[in-house]
Amino acid sequence: MNFGMFTDFHVRENMNQVEAFDESFNQVMAAEELGLDTVWLAEHHFSPERAVLASPMVLASAICARTERIRVGLAVQVLPLTNPLRVAEEAATVDHISKGRFEFGIGRSGLTRYYQGFNVPYEESRPRFIESLEIIMKAWKQDTFSHNGRYHSYDDVTVVPRPFQNPHPPVTVAVAGEETFPMIGEMGHSIFISMNTGREQLKDRLDSYREARQKRETTTTGNILMRVPVYVAETKEKARSEPEASARHALIYAAQELSQTAASEEAAARMHRTANLPYEEILANRVIYGSPDEVVDRLKEVQEDLGITGLVMECNYGGRIPYDSVCNSLRLLSEKVMPHFK
Question: How confident is the model at residue 217 (pLDDT cuts 50, 70, 90)?
Answer without folding.
Answer: low
